[in-house]
Amino acid sequence: xxxxxVRSRFIKHFDGKTxxxxxxxxxxxxxxxxxxxxxxxxxxxxxxxxxxxxxxPNGTDTVMAYAIDxxxxxxxxxxxxxxxxTSWARYIYGIIQEMKKQGxxxxxxxxxFAGDVPLGAGMSSSAAMECCFAYALNDLFGYNKVxxxxxxxxxxxxEHNYCGVNCGIMDxxxxxxxxxxxxxxxxxxxxxxEYYPFEPKGYKLVLIDSVVKHELASSAYNDRRxxxxxxxxxxxxxxxxxxxxxxxxxxxxxxxxxxAEVSDEDMKRAVYVLGEKDRVxxxxxxxxxGDYETVGQKMYETHNGLSKDYEVSCEELDxxxxxxxxxxxxxxxxMGGGFGGCTxxxxxxxxxxxxxxxxxxxxxxxxxxxxxxxxxxISDGARKLC
Length: 386
What we know:
This protein is an alpha+beta fold.
């Protein structure tokens, strides 16, 4: 993203004065899908695509906001009890309210923002917006007294309270805490996290967007959560003397012990979750050793589990992963909840051009759709630029 472009729009649409510029990134998740609500681990990293804003206090009680990419302008009072109806402006309004709860005395301001996080590709443009705005308000009005974790929680609360999305914390966490060349293993239960090196020399990290989103995604997601809860209930009943809250607390022997008590479908879901727990820990060791071949192998294993046991893949995503395997790509899998969206691919540089060209051609021939390609680099989290 270009600071000068954002600044030129800011100057044009407001009073000709400049402000401060902030940025927050989108994210990828290398491994650890459908583990958050099972108390497990996720493995995100911030990327070199995100949201940039320029902001300046205006001495009033009014927010004047301009969405550069949408060419849309909205004004509202900081203390408006309802807030704006425009969906993108709800993120600004929500962050203001949540930061005020943290003791930040937010006054009126002018803001213009733009982004290069592809919408709908699973890189969390909304979390990037929330973290960008929270970081800016904390710097301008809060004198940086609000912690990064509290800004993460303000972003999550904005989704819950003002945007109608009951999300977890991974997206905001990655956008706020990201570091260049580092992935983060986040414990979704304790919120403990650890940085791991991710500098795969000789490889590229690339997302291939299937441009597909199947309608059954939300109901199927709820079904899978219910399956996990069913198995946990059986575990609690059989192992009443143990403290079992989620599948995170189970091991393979315990799972085998309740096999007769749960449906075959519920058992398949639990098999995936326990396998994913093991794979995340294996990737930790592989990254510390610089062993990207093992990382890639675990990515394929995750896709297989998501496709066969958790059944959240679709024909298009399986086709993209099969093409990756056929082209000798080191690792490939669904990224995100499934039923459409992107695959994430770890590709040796010498294979990259042929893999991308062949994939785009074969995918179009098979489905009549033009997949999109996004190269990503692991980058720093939310910050002030100037």
